[in-house]
Amino acid sequence: MSKTHLAPYINFQGSAREAMEHYHRILGGKLELFASDNSGKPKPAGPGERIMYARLEADGILMIASDGNPKYPAKVGDHIGLSIGSTDRDRLMTVFNALAAGGQVGMPLTDQPWGTSGWLTDRFGINWNVDIEKE
């Protein structure tokens, strides 16, 4: 049985690299930073590139972040949400669909280098990122 985690997902609206590198210096652990190529596909982030996905894991701590999308600037209260992840594809597809019922899907479940991800706002206005991780 796979383990499921729940973590904050923070939209740093342009300062994700700076913020996540800061937290990495403080907390240690492993930091992964991804940008997108010209076709929008994820790739390891180079210096100065916008961060489409960042993940910091350290001593039981998990933080997920991004620079957000300039087309969808974060409103007050929208810059942080919840990220749920697991390797249990069936469970998280059920979770995604149930959270989407009565809400609004921002990105359907889509393949990424780290697994399959999607995001939505549930019917209560809570932002969710769902990550089906590779085993």
Average pLDDT over all residues: 90
What amount of the residues lies in strands?
Answer: 35-45%
What is the CATH topology assignment?
2,3-Dihydroxybiphenyl 1,2-Dioxygenase, domain 1
Structural class: alpha+beta
How far the N terminus sits from the C terminus, by CA atoms, comes to: 11 Å
| Envelope shape | globular
CATH architecture, please?
A: Roll
Instruction: Name the strands of the widest sheet in spatial order.
Output: 3-2-4-5-1-6-9-8-7
Oligomer: single chain
Largest sheet: 9 strands, mixed
Provide a descriptive summary of the structure in words.
By secondary structure, the chain is α+β, with helices and mostly antiparallel strands. The protein has one domain: 2,3-Dihydroxybiphenyl 1,2-Dioxygenase, domain 1, CATH 3.10.180.10. Helix content is 18%, strand content 44%. A 9-stranded mixed beta sheet has the order 3-2-4-5-1-6-9-8-7, with helices on one face. β8 and β9 (127-133) form a beta hairpin. The longest helix is centred in the first third of the chain and has 12 residues, at 16-27. The protein is globular, with a radius of gyration of 14 Å. The relative contact order is 0.21. The model has no long low-confidence stretch (mean pLDDT 90).
